[in-house]
Write a structure and sequence with these properties.
binds heme C, mainly alpha, iron, Cytochrome Bc1 Complex, Chain D, domain 2, C-type cytochrome, about 425 residues
């Protein structure tokens, strides 16, 4: 019978195995543990000797052995899968997320990973592991896994973590773009990431030595325009704030806060930190000189929401310690501290997101930002929406300039640290 012969065979083969095991253990599991510990110590010492003698292959030129490469990727896939469990995926179909994600992809990912119509740089292809050309890789990952990778980066691979760990909202914008990338045409990519421009100077790693010397801001401004538009009006959708119409002091303060890492944004921090102080000053001056533009194409919100926004902005909520906003942000005439941004005519989604960040303690900003932390602290989501809709519905206007005579009324950070009197 085949079954019995198989059984005999097992018995025959297992006999030597059993006698070897009983020799090893001598009937005691303690000896097994001791033997395993000895082997591990020998292997550890051997590995340390190899490392000390400098014999471990660390050259990127030789790549990984197939087995090492497989093991590392397996470890990464398992770690990402396990550690991204429980991450809730927010709705990702907002066109503003796509724009913001594409804009940042061009700054921070393209050189390593390539993109629609864009090859990876030849230099990064010499890395081990090589950053993959990303479009065909996206389908292998669930959205929460992409989020995890982009937020945390991957150790030992040069895949960087998100520069502003507090800004999950920005990481989701990148995920929204990544998911739209497979099958995207090069034209669509240019439209999203470059605002339709095909200016060669916008390529992130192109040296700009061919630019005329008398226009040193040229290539820098071309990059800002990808997102904030040439007229400083943003690109619609509310992905990028309007800059035109802000005071020079506020713009410079914001840029310096990003550069110092005191205002948190994985999109703006790397850009501002990469520019010299004099360039930041010139940029602030440039945008402050542009006439204010409103490009808020969103449908007009319901009249009762606007009315609620108006009441909140003018009166605040005395019972909950929410100050009136108009005192510092207008639209009332009269000089204001130039460090108080003009929010009239700003995009509603941008205003709402900044209020949410203030409430969550994730906004940062200049030395005046603490004023807003207390001002926004107790706003409900509905109140934030009403305030954002109300201010977005106003025409954009620059605040009246502060003159010698009025400058004593506009205050210093210390003077303004408590919210103004409520009415
Ligand atoms: C300095 C180069 C570099 C930059 C910049 C970079 N990455 Fe990576 N990325 C890597 C490397 C290296 C890997 C790991 C490749 C591997 O494990 O084989 C990786 C892996 C990934 C993966 C997983 C790919 C896969 O299927 O294994 C994703 C997704 C990813 N990166 C997205 C991004 C995004 C989005 C950005 C921009 C925010 C970015 N990366 C910026 C180098 C980079
Ligand atoms: C990839 C798109 C992108 C590029 C390029 C870019 N920005 Fe921004 N910018 C943003 C986003 C997104 C924000 C909002 C960030 C936040 O949530 O704090 C922002 C915010 C700002 C703010 C703060 C505005 C406010 O109302 O507080 C200033 C000032 C600014 N950017 C200036 C610039 C300048 C100058 C350049 C060029 C050197 C530039 N940006 C390039 C996307 C971009
Ligand atoms: C005492 C003055 C003051 C009051 C009152 C005040 N704010 Fe502010 N607000 C500021 C300052 C200062 C900043 C800029 C902080 C920074 O970036 O350093 C700011 C920033 C903001 C921003 C972000 C703008 C941008 O471009 O990023 C929004 C939105 C905002 N305030 C809305 C409000 C609302 C709504 C209220 C009323 C509930 C209010 N503020 C009350 C002083 C004030």
């Amino acid at each position: 019978m085949p079954f019995q012969s198989a059984k005999r065979m097992v018995q025959r083969c297992s006999a030597p195995l059993r006698s070897w095991l009983s020799w090893l253990t001598g009937g005691s599991w303690k000896r097994v543990v001791a033997a395993v510990a000895l082997l591990a110590a020998l292997a550890g010492t051997g590995a340390f000797v190899l490392v000390s003698l400098g014999l471990v292959s660390i050259g990127a030129s030789s790549g990984h052995w197939k087995a090492t490469g497989w093991m590392l990727h397996y470890a990464m896939r398992r770690a990402v899968s396990t550690q991204s469990m429980g991450i809730e995926v927010p709705p990702l179909d907002d066109p503003a997320l796509l724009l913001k994600g594409a804009g940042h992809y061009h700054t921070g990912c393209l050189a390593c990973h390539g993109g629609p119509g864009e090859k990876r740089s030849l230099i990064v292809q010499q890395m081990t592991p090589e950053p993959p050309y990303l479009p065909p890789r996206i389908e292998h990952w669930a959205p929460q896994e992409l989020f995890w990778i982009v937020k945390n980066g991957v150790k030992f691979t040069a895949m960087p973590a998100w520069p502003a760990q507090k800004r999950d909202d920005e990481v989701w914008a990148v995920v929204a773009f990544l998911q739209a990338m497979p099958g995207m045409s090069p034209e669509r990519y240019k439209e999203l990431a470059l605002g339709g421009r095909s200016d060669e100077t916008i390529k992130p790693i192109t040296p700009d030595h061919l630019r005329p010397l008398q226009d040193p801001l040229g290539p820098v401004l071309a990059n800002c325009s990808r997102c904030h538009a040439e007229d400083g009006g943003g690109r619609g959708e509310g992905a990028f704030p309007r800059l035109a119409g802000q005071s020079e002091a506020y713009l410079l303060g914001a840029l310096q806060a990003y550069a110092r890492g005191e205002r948190y944004s994985g999109v703006m921090q790397p850009i501002a930190a990469g520019l010299k102080p004099a360039v930041l000053e010139a940029l602030a001056q440039h945008y402050a000189e542009l006439p204010p533009v409103s490009r808020t194409e969103a449908p007009e919100p319901a009249p009762d929401i606007l009315a609620e926004g108006l009441t909140l902005a003018e009166r605040g909520v005395r019972a909950r310690g929410i100050p009136s906003c108009v005192h510092c942000h207008g639209p009332k005439g009269g000089p204001r501290n130039p460090m108080y941004p003009n929010i009239a005519g700003q995009y509603a989604p941008y205003l709402k997101s900044q209020l949410e960040l203030f409430t969550a303690g994730k906004r940062g900003g200049t030395e005046y930002a603490h004023i807003m932390h207390s001002a926004a602290q107790r706003l409900t989501p509905e109140q934030m929406q009403a305030l954002a809709d109300y201010y977005a519905s106003l025409p954009a206007a620059a605040a009246p300039p502060v003159t010698e005579a009025t400058s004593t009324h506009v205050g210093t950070p210390a003077q303004n640290s408590s919210p103004p009197q409520q009415r």
